Amino acid sequence: MKQILKKVSSVCAAVVCAASLTVSGAVVVAADSEIDETVKTQLTATAEGLTDAIVPLSDEEITRYMESADEFTVQAVTSWSSSKEEVGELKEIGKAEIEFDDDQYAVTVPVDFEKTDANFIYIFSEEGMPMSMTVDVQYPLSVTLQRAGLNTLMGLGTVFVMLVFLSFIISLFRFIPGFLEGKKKEVPVPASPVPVQAPVLEEEVDDTELIAVIAAAIAASEGTSTDGFVVRSIRKINRKKGK
C-alpha cells in the first residue's frame, strides 16, 4: 500500500489523517448509524486518490507492483490489470460513495472510461486501513445479453454433447454379452486323460499232458497219427454269450 500511496501526491493530507486515525483509534460512527463527516471525508479522499494513482499505471509498473510484499498493493494492481483492456482509456473519476457495514467501510469510486464504465470498490477496516480493492466493470446491456446468450449456448452445448456421449456408451452395452461369450469360448478346456488299457497278456498254456490229449483227439478225428502234426500252443477263444 505504501508504494501506491507515494504516487498520490494530491491526497497526502488525507492519507496522513487516516494514518493518525489508525494510531489513535479515533474512528467514530454516530449513534444513528451515519458515518462521521470527518471519517467520510478522509476515506473518500483516500479512495479517490488511490484510484487516480492506480488507473494511469503502465504495464511495467503493474508488473513491478505485483512483486511487492504488501498484500493490498498486489491485490489492487492485479484486479486493475485484469480489467484494464476491457474499459479503455480514462475519461473521468467520479465522486466516491461510502457505506459502513459489519465493522467495515465500503467506498465506491465510479470511473468513466472510453469503452465502458467501472466502479472501484475499496474495503477499509474500522480503523481506516485499506484491506482490498476490486474493479466492477459496468458492462452495457447489449454486452450483458450477449454474454448471457453465449453462456446459455455453452451450457446447452455441453449438455447435448454429454447426452450424445452417454447414448454412445449405452449403445455399446449390447455388445457386452457377445464379448463375454467370446471370452468364455477362448478359455481352453483341459482334455480328459484317455485311460490307457493295460495290454492283455495271453496266457499260453504250457501243459505237455494237455497238448498230448488234444493231439490224440485231433489225430483220432482225422484218422491219422500224431506224427503228421505238432501242437505248439493252446489259446483260449473268447466266445460271446448267446452264440
Q: What do you see in this structure?
A:
It is built from eight helices and five strands, in the order αααααβββββααα. 15% of the residues are buried. Strand 4 (117-125) and strand 5 form a beta hairpin. It folds into two domains: 2-142, Nuclear Transport Factor 2, Chain: A (Roll), CATH 3.10.450; 203-236, no CATH class. It has 243 residues and is α+β, with helices and mostly antiparallel strands. It has helices at residues 2-5, 12-24, 37-54, 59-66, 71-87, 141-171, 176-186, 208-222, and strands spanning 90-93, 97-101, 104-113, 117-125, 130-138.
Mean model confidence by pLDDT: 76
CATH class category label of the largest domain = Alpha Beta
> What coarse outline follows from CA principal-axis ratios?
rod-shaped
Number of domains: 2
Q: Give the fraction of residues assigned to helices.
A: 40-55%
Task: Provide a compact summary of the structure.
By secondary structure, the protein is α+β, with helices and mostly antiparallel strands.
SSE diagram, text form:
Elements: H1 2-5, H2 12-24, H3 37-54, H4 59-66, H5 71-87, E1 90-93, E2 97-101, E3 104-113, E4 117-125, E5 130-138, H6 141-171, H7 176-186, H8 208-222
Antiparallel strand pairs: 1-3, 2-3, 3-4, 4-5
Helix pairs in contact: 2-3, 4-5
Notable features of this structure?
243 residues; Nuclear Transport Factor 2, Chain: A; 2 domains; 8 helices
